[in-house]
Design goal:
alpha/beta, Quinone Oxidoreductase, Chain A, domain 1, 2 domains, six-stranded parallel beta sheet, 15 strands, globular, oxidoreductase, ADH-like_C
């Protein structure tokens, strides 16, 4: 099979390697594609802790495809089932992993790309956020995750204020139901705009979905007294500071909405499958760019640079 191997910072090769073999309790999936996750960007940049070369297919974890082999003792999954797979070497034509880490895709999603992990992540963050009808919710950062959260929050009856850097992403936020949009340009101007939009009380809940220091600072400023700040951004490039004086004074509840239990990840993917299959959620317009496996480097660079019109890249086989 063909699989991508990252050989150094910003460098990769596509190599021909042996197909993995499904061991006991495992399934092998012939992949149709894999989403490109922003969490790949730190390893792609080559920090000191990163070891090269990666395993064949390494970093890819948003795969979907068709089960083509079963290991011993597998129940509930059959060869030929189309699934979303939470495996971790999915930048290749095949990947293998625990049978409990695949979720069947119904006929309603036939021929539909389905990078299950990021949609499932959004479902889990939304659940952890506890958003209720009538609340005002600010979402800072409208990428793929922020856009889906805007849709889910709007469907829950919340008023969404979307804050993002790119005009394109603010248009996407409107399409996903945001009632108000604000360009992420000037810190104090944003605070004053939100103050005016909320009658001076600020937001019941604020979701930070960028993963940088400034948006985290801004999120606290926009959260009302006894409100809830939800950290959804992926903060993996260094330490962060928080304004504890402000957090204390306003009595904020703070939720780190990342999950680490694989079973919860998989439940999020199940919830995502149900939401897309019954029409509550349509992520298809957010898949703005598709690449061949040999173009994975371009896909990663575009995910980093986020040019106009970009929301999420898929690598398809």
């Amino acid at each position: 099979m063909r699989a991508a191997v990252v050989t150094g910072p910003g460098e990769l090769n596509v190599e021909v390697v042996a197909r993995p073999i499904a061991g006991p309790g495992e399934v092998r999936v012939r992949l149709e594609g894999c989403g490109v996750c922003a969490s790949n960007l730190t390893p792609w940049a080559g920090p000191e802790w990163m070891e090269f070369p990666t395993e064949a297919g390494g970093l890819g974890h948003e795969g979907w495809g068709v089960v083509d082999a079963l290991g011993e003792g597998v129940d509930g999954v059959e060869v030929g089932d189309r699934v979303a797979a939470l495996f971790y070497k999915s930048y290749g034509e095949y990947d293998v992993g625990p049978a409990e880490n695949v979720v069947k895709l119904p006929d309603a999603l036939a021929d539909t790309p389905f990078p299950g992990e990021p949609i499932g992540c959004a479902m889990n963050i939304f659940r952890r956020s506890g958003i209720r009808a009538g609340e005002t919710v600010a979402i800072i950062g409208i990428g793929f995750l922020g856009a889906i959260l805007a849709r889910l929050a709007t469907q829950a009856g919340a008023r969404v204020i979307a804050i993002s850097r790119r005009p394109f992403s603010l248009e996407v936020a409107k399409d996903m139901g945001a009632a108000e949009t604000i360009a992420m340009e000037d810190h104090w101007q944003i605070i004053e705009q939100v103050r005016a939009l909320t009658g001076g009380s600020f937001c019941d809940r604020v979701i930070e979905a960028v993963g940088r220091q400034w948006p985290l600072d801004l999120a606290a400023e926009l959260t009302r007294e006894r409100g809830t700040l939800i950290v959804a951004g992926y903060h993996q490039d260094g330490a962060r500071q928080v304004n504890m004086q402000l957090w204390n004074w306003r009595g904020l509840d703070v939720i780190n909405a990342h999950e680490r239990d694989p079973a919860i990840y998989i439940q999020g993917i199940r919830d995502a499958v149900a939401a897309v299959a019954d029409g509550r959620l349509d992520p298809a317009p957010l898949y703005t760019h598709r690449f061949a496996l040999e173009q994975l480097g371009d896909a990663l660079n575009m995910t980093r640079d986020r040019p106009d019109g970009f929301m999420k890249a898929l690598v398809t086989f």
